User: Which sequence fits this backbone?
């Protein structure tokens, strides 16, 4: 879910927080659902040049590489990149990681067949500018998969409360509806095919495990109440 909620209610972003999150029952269930949705929307990645924009500690990048993709991960946080490189070290995975900003990607136009960006635009000041950069480096007819924090969910409500109570991270976070995510992509000349939701349960481990089997079904029918919203589209061919 991007930034992690610490046990004392603070928000911590870093490799240790991600590792701790995945070890918890709630984190493992939630991350599995989100990753499954993103990879399903991404489609066949074999031999595709994939950019993981805002790659964090490289978990999704490694999953894509295991499916045959040639992956480049970009993130502004050196500690996250170090964790990502450690994750792939000695595993023969086709993935490289570089430091960079979504608002000013250093790649040439049309460098990638697929771009994924998961829970990063919600923390970017100029999301529209970052989206234009992402679209620029995507080849015509290439696939873009975006995953963002849903606006109308229990998770979002709790995070907004933490923002009001002093968390600078959640105070500046931008939660989006499915239609807002669609509009953001469309403005960057991305033709959206599908918008889906995930994580319809409250942030409680036992309830997450109970609801996980029906969560994908709910996500195919609505995004209302989803803590995570994902969309896939293709870059329009112009000229």
Assistant:
């Amino acid at each position: 879910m991007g930034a992690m909620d610490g046990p004392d209610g603070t928000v911590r972003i870093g490799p240790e927080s991600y590792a701790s999150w995945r070890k918890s029952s709630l984190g493992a269930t939630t991350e599995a659902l989100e990753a499954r949705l993103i990879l399903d929307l991404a489609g066949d990645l074999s031999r595709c040049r994939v950019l993981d924009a805002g790659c964090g500690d490289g978990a999704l990048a490694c999953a894509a590489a295991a499916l045959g993709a040639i992956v480049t991960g970009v993130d502004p946080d050196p500690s996250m990149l170090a964790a990502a490189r450690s994750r792939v070290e000695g595993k023969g995975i086709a993935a490289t990681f570089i430091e960079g900003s979504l608002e000013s990607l250093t790649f040439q136009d049309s460098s990638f067949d697929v771009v994924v960006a998961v829970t990063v635009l919600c923390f970017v000041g100029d999301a529209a500018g970052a989206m234009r950069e992402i679209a620029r480096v995507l080849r015509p007819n290439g696939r873009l998969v975006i995953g963002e924090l849903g606006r109308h969910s229990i998770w979002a409500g709790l995070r907004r409360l933490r923002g009001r109570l002093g968390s600078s991270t959640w105070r500046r976070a931008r939660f989006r509806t499915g239609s807002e995510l669609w509009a953001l992509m469309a403005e960057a000349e991305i033709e959206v095919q599908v918008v889906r939701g995930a994580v319809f349960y409250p942030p409680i481990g036992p309830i997450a495990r109970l609801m996980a089997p029906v969560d994908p079904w709910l996500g195919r029918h609505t995004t209302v109440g989803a803590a995570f919203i994902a969309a896939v589209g293709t870059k329009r061919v112009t000229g």
Residues 1-12 have pLDDT under 50 and may be disordered. Residues 25-42 form the longest helix (18 residues). The CA atoms of residues 119 and 148 lie 5 Å apart. The domain at 4-234 is CATH 3.40.50.150 (Rossmann fold).
